[in-house]
Specification:
The protein is α+β, with helices and mostly antiparallel strands and 271 residues long. The protein has helices at residues 18-21, 25-32, 52-56, 130-148, 172-175, 183-193, 222-225; strands at residues 7-14, 36-40, 61-65, 73-77, 81-83, 98-103, 110-116, 154-159, 197-199, 214-215, 228-229, 232-237, 244-249, 265-270. It has a single domain (8-270), classed as Endonuclease/exonuclease/phosphatase (Deoxyribonuclease I, Chain A). The chain has a 6-stranded mixed beta sheet, with no helix packed on it. The structure holds one DNA strand of 15 nucleotides.
Length: 271
Amino acid sequence: MAPRRRRLRVATWNINSLRLRAPLLRRLIDGVSPDVICLQETKVADPLFPAKVPKSLGFPFVAFRGMKGYNGVAVFSRVPFEEQSDAPDWCSKGDCRHLAVRLDVPGEPVVLHDFYVPAGGDVPDPAANPKYRHKLDFVAEATGWFATTPPARSILVGDLNIAPLEHDVWSHRQLLKVVSHTPPETEGLTAWLATGFTDAVRRFVPAEHKHYTWWSYRNIDWRASDRGRRLDHVWVTHDLAPALVRQVTLKDARDWPQPSDHVPVCVELAL
DNA sequence: ATGGTAGATGCTCTA
């Protein structure tokens, strides 16, 4: 029997509270018909995880890692998967920022990483700001891990909290000293990418085009001021790059009722 | 140079 090609759509979204915004997942599903949804900032401890939410939306395969109040990641899937347990506890903090699963797709499995990188606080000085130091350490540790465990047939998504390119922010010059776009962060993220990945979204959106996934709640009119940043990413290993079909960034999600400050990003592959 | 909003939590932290 000839192997059947299969389209795989993977969406990533910083939902900023799963329990509060679960109703919005219907809009995400109607918008991009994802096979897999990776969430960040679920903000729910595991014993309180709303298991009915993914089931009722038609996603029977679920993994989650959460804690009280902060952080938290989850994967909802229509495709069977096995959770990988060999990933490190980044920076030994046990703070629920990563899940890795092995998707049971036609052919060899595809490994999917869902990351929530620390935001890093306000002051871009690792000596004065432990949150910024943690962020840089986290990225460096992930870079080291992928460098010594070279990834293949892998997808890495998530809120990486860094906008690496000049046109991933509304003003490159004005954000060079703002956490999310400082040289130590963008250089760190570039080194992590270089452990074996390609930036899937930028294969479809030219580097000279402004492209954002996050707009602050603190702007009265986010669309008019358009002071956005591209903090949410989809990377694929080089062996999967030829399979990339399209990307969709659901900018309209920023205007959904009671929105997250991040919008979903979805990538489709023809495996 | 400043402050603006949002969510979980519980007299404040994180983003």
